């Protein structure tokens, strides 16, 4: 599954039209990453993938908007790292992997340590028709099905 990285739409809503409270958690995570970075999550710039890559490389603070980065104290920079980690927890693929909002607030205020996020779905490489054909060559069937999914 791969999403185009546009907006605040959770993967379960984009793929199945399922609505839940955890969709709001996903949207909050995107918004939190946008506030920290000063950039929008959109088709032309996948903020979630960018934030994840920096997090994985232990360079999370590079996500922080350069306009405010220089004026932050070391303690404030530690808060920013936590906010990024919480934002990434909120944008997990499965709603069951996202924290409830009642747990997000204590994480943001350092009253509770956030868990380690998994790689968000929007960071997975998209499968192209060529990839699918190559996968097909390795199987015994000669059939190929390509499905284009669009959000509602």
From TrEMBL:
GO terms for molecular function: protein kinase activity. Residues 8-106 form the Serine-threonine/tyrosine-protein kinase catalytic domain. InterPro entries: Kinase-like_dom_sf, Ser-Thr/Tyr_kinase_cat_dom. Signal peptide: none annotated. Gene3D superfamilies: Transferase(Phosphotransferase) domain 1. This is Serine-threonine/tyrosine-protein kinase catalytic domain-containing protein. It comes from Aegilops tauschii subsp. strangulata (Goatgrass).
